[in-house]
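User: Hello, can you help with two protein structures?

Assistant: Certainly.
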Amino acid sequence: MKIGNNGIPWGIIFAGMLFSLYLVWQIPNGVYFSGDGGLKALLAQQLSAGVFHFDLVKPSEIWIQKLWSEGLYAYQEPFVYYLNNRYFITFPFPFSLVTAPFYALFGYRGLYIVPLVATWVIWGTFYGMCQRFKLNLFNTSLALFILIFASNLTLYSAMYWEHTLAVALCFAGMAILFSPTETGNLSSKNVILSGCLIGFSAWVRSEFFAMVATLTFLGCLLTILNHNYFQNIREKIKLNQSYFSVQKLIFFLISLFTTVGLFFLSNQLIYGHFLGIHALQIVEGFTLARRLKEAWESLQEISLTFFEYFPIAIFPLLYIFLNLLKKATNKVGVGLVIIGLLFLISLQGVTLVLNWKTNDLSAIKNWVKQWGILLFICASWLYLLRKVDVKVTPRMILIYGICILFTVGVALLVDSGSDEIAVGGKQWGQRYLLILLPFVSLMGVQQLNVIKENSPSIPHNISLFFVGILLIISCHKNLYEGTVFFQKAHEGVAPAIEALQKNSNRIIVVSHQYAAQVLESPLRKNKIFFRIENSQNLVKLGNALVENNQSSFIYVCYPHRECKLPQESPENWKFAVEGQNFQIKMLSLGKIGKYPMYEVAIKPIRI
């Protein structure tokens, strides 16, 4: 391919790089998108300083350690676990370990190098995949534009989160498996490399164990189909018998399970639990009935969220629906379209009726705005293309299978905490399904091409118009709304960090661990954090401070949870040390950033 023909795809990638750099530039110094990032940064900062412990090392002062062990530690489960007299963050250690050298070299901004570069690697891998599939210039450019600007993946390039690193590893491994070579076969070396890369993605993100299981199942299935007994099936789906032989399956599984096994071994050595700390959220209180119930609820939510934040994925969904319709046309005909759409609408109709009865008119308005018009457009496309012969290729079947199996696996694996607003907590789009975005983008473009090759120009132009509408909706969702959400997510924190940095008090007390997750990382060198929610612990801290010749600290309220302590009576804040009586007094400093703050003084009194 000539350099000129590569210009447009590389231009799209370059524009994406500029956009991702713009997002990183928008982040105030020391601020993280979510509290998860703050905890991972604490471990990365510790490792970058040469303290090679995978637990958060305690300060040397005995009185601080004692208070922490008595319930005043800034963090609690399920974010930090106290095991074997050590504090472990719940998140796997590899991401903090990988980003630690960049923090040592470049400071806070260095933490974003790995997520940023990993995103660029995903785009480069995707472009290479398009070339190996021999997509033309238009289809390659469209697929790249969808992935970079119409999906929620790019926003994660500017978050201190391990998702893009895990996706980059897994996608690179899967691209090796599923991209055709000149000979049409896989080499043993590539199979081993693929297994290692996919296995390493599970080191970084636990939901990728679902991909390990998915690919293991599909690999075994493809190998079984190599048997002569299944020759007719193999010929029907045009499967190359030598593409995934028994030998290659063995090489793949050995490399995959060896890599995953090493992760389990490292967990056992570090945490004393081969599944790691993160798995404790699922293992603790586990019952099969509860797990299945939560998995079903999670499956519905993550599936709906995936389409909400990546509307262009609706096209492949309708494509397979139209294909199934054509196969059943002699039995049910076009009526199946109407029945199917009525079923989909009825599912949401129940919610609308309930909202109407409770006078929640805003919910009805939002539903009509978000889904009503879109459903009408989808029904129109299905009707207009009802006579078009849409074909499903073996590659499409494989991608559909991966999407379904992986989504079900994720629903079984992930745990939605009682304090989370959604499955996955604070996020933009469904972060657990980011690995599916490149495959859905590629499949959608290929399906457009199939319609073009197997139908007159009018159905293809209608499909292009339909995809164009979905593309506009997706870009508005992720480019505009996503950027606005991203900027708002970082507001109100920097002023609080700056105020606490300038304040001479070494002791910072928070009302909720979410405040500490965001604030401690940029202040860790000079501040000690505690968490206090009641008067009893407040007096306990005051007692310890007096005994250690300290008399003041800062109290920070988390704005999104009730902060009761400042409203309690000061009469509950009296105590005595060695015969001397003391009173704790709070002076409001107002709202700094988004955090209400108080200066707390401990003063001797006479009774």
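That covers the first. Now for the second protein you mentioned:
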Amino acid sequence: MPDADRDVQHLLARELGIHWIVSSILIGRDIRTPDDARRYLYPSLHDLHNPFLMKDMLPGVDRLIAAVYKKEKVVVYGDYDADGITSVAVLVRFLREIQADVSYYIPDRMEEGYGLNQKAIDKIKDSGAALIITVDCGISDRDEVLYASSMGLDTVILDHHEVSGPLPKAVAAINPKRPDDSFPMKHLAAVGIVFNFLIALRGSLRKNGFWHNKPYPNLKEYLDLVALGTIGDICPMIDENRIFCRVGLELLTEGKRAGIRALKEISGLESSTVDSEKASFSLIPRINAAGRVGLPEEAVELLLSDSVVETRELALKLENYNRKRRALEKAILDDIIDNIENTTDSRNRTAFVLASDKWHPGVIGIVASKIADRYDRPAILISLKDGVGKGSGRSIANFNIFQGLKECEDCLISYGGHRYAAGISILEEDIEKFSDLLDEIVRENLQQSDSVSATVIEAQCHLNDITHELLSQMELLAPFGSRNPEPVLCVRNVNFLSPSIVGKNHLRMRVSESGVSRNTIWFSQGHFIHDLNDSSLDIAFTPQINYWNGSSDIQLKMKDIAISGN
């Protein structure tokens, strides 16, 4: 560590009373002053930005306030993933709380696809609505917004996807990724933008005397849903996202909302602390499953209902959808892995573009994510029907898939998304040309070293440094996610004892150094047992508390190993 960093390390440790390992981790994340460290370790709602810094926030809020006072019918138009579903639930719940005339519409994934469409607009017009508010969609729907306007419908857009081309001619197009937007945080989920919109809306209504000295809605109570949508969309766990999720995960753990309580029960988490990992792997997949293979409206109703009986029935439906989703996903994943492993052309690709008319369009995004993770390459999977493909793509850290698609737009009917995830429509006849072009673009953009995973070590220490006090302080680094990963520590020259394979190919062993020993677990890496010999090891790991049969102990969750000296 350079002397300047060592001085900062000592400063942070002294000023905040934190362990030297925690201060080293902060420095590695470019948090170098005591004030920045306090804001990071103790995120507060007081640190949220002014929502009116978002372009078009004022006209968007004013148009909705006018609708509330005129008792106009408002339709919230959403998307069928966790971010879209929670965005709909948050906005609808608030508007119901202020007695607005509000309903919602989520397009059918199979029949309508993503975003606004004319048939849906016709239905909304026929329902007597005057205002559409899009959430998690709309920023690319120029023609549809014009059509809505021609039908006498105003549109307010709340979206977070990348902006490509002219903005729709809406009353308001609220998106911090607009080139002319000055909001400091550009990487919010749609539900985070909705929450900012509600801060602005509530503030404006208060100024107008809407509540006449009566209690007004407590927006903090919505942050359980904001956290689910933010984590579900794999947004960077920084700035406002970190604040939303720190508070929201506490609310998820409390489980006061009937729908959340039912969802936790069906997921086996009724008495568990909910962290970002449990949210990602237990709660969010069940919400997503409704939009992938079932009815997304049932997930929305789960989050809106206050009935214990109704929410338990809905949670059971989501559980069944999730089981169906897992079976579909496994079949597709096995098919693709077999294709890649047994086809030389596929193995040599720097990006995978694969298509089939047998794949369910609702699950290809999850499978694309698993393929990208497994092979460390961008992956786009395409579900074919009647000569047209609907594709879902996931990327890796060093490649912006949205920008890559922008360079391929001549091959595509349409596309949209952001850095890590995107969707496309494409003619079946253009898939081969698109695949070759994307492969060439990825190859040019990535150095060979970029496509090989590297384990980033944030502090080197000894086993006797790994104490309960350290782990207690490391909890302040949570919630973890994109751009705020679980910290990885390193201990060199450890001896290992009793390696064994447990569960589904997990490697368990005990390591010791200087008279201190710890248990370790390396998930899904049991095959490495054959590479172990009598040499000592350098180990990279995240320390954690392992709870088992009513007791707890420090365990090292392994990330990587190397033979000492190599």
